Amino acid sequence: MRNNKKEEFVSISDVLKDFKSQNKLSKGFLKVDVDAAWKEVMGPGVMTYTTGIKLSGEKLFIDLSSSVLRQELSYGRSKIIANLNEHLGKEVIKTLVLR
Question: Which InterPro entries would you find in this protein's record (predicted)?
Answer without folding.
Answer: DciA-like
